[in-house]
């Protein structure tokens, strides 16, 4: 098998707008999230509310976010967070535009899990297929920082 990296490693975290943090403060530990408005994400494929995941004392801790807004679209979720509606749980990969623009800021990074990034896996026999090569080139162009 061959693995081709499609993006840099990224990290999961809680994100909020500068205006939200100015009005409500920044959570310092995961327990602080109960005092914040969180924008919840309903996973379309399962129908459940995604529980936010953190690493504490070497163990995975899952938090049920508290909030009056639930969405099932990542773009909408990020847009609401930029407008100061509440905090979101996302990755630095998905929020890269907002981070670069300064419209979202991460918190709780010290207890947030990381990821090695996205990879495309394929067999050695498939590596010379023009369609696969074109797809890899497109992914590199679209996912380039």
Automatic annotation (TrEMBL):
Pfam family, one: LysR_substrate
Domain LysR substrate-binding, residue spans: 4-142
Family: Belongs to the LysR transcriptional regulatory family.
PANTHER family reported in the protein's UniProt record: HTH-TYPE TRANSCRIPTIONAL ACTIVATOR TTDR-RELATED (PTHR30537:SF5), HTH-TYPE TRANSCRIPTIONAL REGULATOR (PTHR30537)
Entry protein name: LysR substrate-binding domain-containing protein
Originating species: Pseudomonas fakonensis
């Amino acid at each position: 098998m061959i693995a081709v990296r499609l993006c840099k490693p990224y990290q999961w975290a809680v994100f909020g707008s500068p205006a939200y943090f100015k009005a409500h403060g920044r959570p310092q530990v995961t327990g602080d999230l109960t005092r914040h408005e969180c924008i919840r994400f309903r996973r379309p494929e399962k129908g459940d509310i995604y529980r936010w995941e953190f690493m504490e004392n070497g163990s995975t801790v899952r938090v049920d976010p508290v909030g009056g807004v639930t969405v099932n679209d990542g773009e909408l979720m990020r847009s609401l967070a930029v407008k100061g509606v509440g905090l979101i749980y996302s990755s630095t990969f998905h929020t890269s535009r907002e981070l670069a623009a300064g419209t979202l800021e991460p918190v709780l990074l010290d207890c947030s899990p990381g990821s090695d990034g996205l990879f495309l896996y394929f067999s050695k026999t498939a590596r010379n297929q023009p369609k696969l090569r074109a797809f890899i080139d497109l992914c590199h162009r679209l996912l380039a920082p």
